Amino acid sequence: xxxxxxxxxxxxxxxxxxxxxxxxxxxxxxxxxxxxxxxxxxxxxxxxxxxxxxxxxxxxxxxxxxxxxxxxxxxxxxxxxxxxxxxxxxxxxxxxxxxxxxxxxxxxxxxxxxxxxxxxxxxxxxxxxxxxxxxxxxxxxxxxxxxx
Length: 148
Fold this sequence. Notes:
By secondary structure, this protein is of the alpha+beta class. It has a single domain, classed as Muramoyl-pentapeptide Carboxypeptidase, domain 2 (2-Layer Sandwich), CATH 3.30.1380.20. The chain has helices at 3-26, 30-44, 50-59, 82-91, 97-111; strands spanning 64-70, 74-80, 113-121, 128-139. Helix 1 (3-26) packs across helix 4 and helix 2 packs across helix 5. Residues 1-5 have low confidence and may be disordered. It comes from Jeotgalibacillus campisalis. This is DUF2507 domain-containing protein.
């Protein structure tokens, strides 16, 4: 079996849920809910450093994450890889706010200050760029859970 067929077979169920079912269920709120879900996943699967974060993305089949630029209060990361390329080309994947929320919360926990992330697809290729911004003057605090 060729590598492309293996990717197709292995990712079919994931793509059905992620790119077809969730947007249909969540409708106009897809991006907001996926962003929140990404933050929630990050709290349940904390990474200690960028290396662990890159490994998590690969293990979760989200793609290959790469740091491309960093400033004092901003960072650019790119997500690519064969699975992501297939999701975009075959399923017209449009929502990457799950990954953005995950990144925002991971870096908030690592840097101990509020962090937000936005995702943007690079035109004409299967690369998603994430811009993360943080405010060192705004300390991070874990969200409190409501007691039932």
